[in-house]
Input
Amino acid sequence: MNDHVIKRHDTIHVHWVGQCKADPEFGGSDFHRNLRIAKTAVDRLGGRGLRKALEETGMGSHPEIVRAFWKMGHVLSQAKQQSPASEPKDWGKIFYPNFPNP
Output
């Protein structure tokens, strides 16, 4: 790659990181915590391959990509909190609710 392309890429990357840190939704004082939420979503939804692609291209620093995975991380967290305890299901009661159960 020529030096001009590398310099341009680095300039854009630094700009995106600054935008992320200043973002009114996920930036500011909670930026590092919110970034962990986004990274967790990347790992849970795409795994190492997705993380590698985002890192290699620099797109993992784009504000809209961070925002999307930050929101997905919140959705995953809420779904995990709202999921019922894993207790065994009584399929008889589920399929035959009116049948007398001992």
Observations:
- The mean pLDDT is 87.
- Helices lie at 3-22, 31-45, 47-57, 63-82, 91-95.
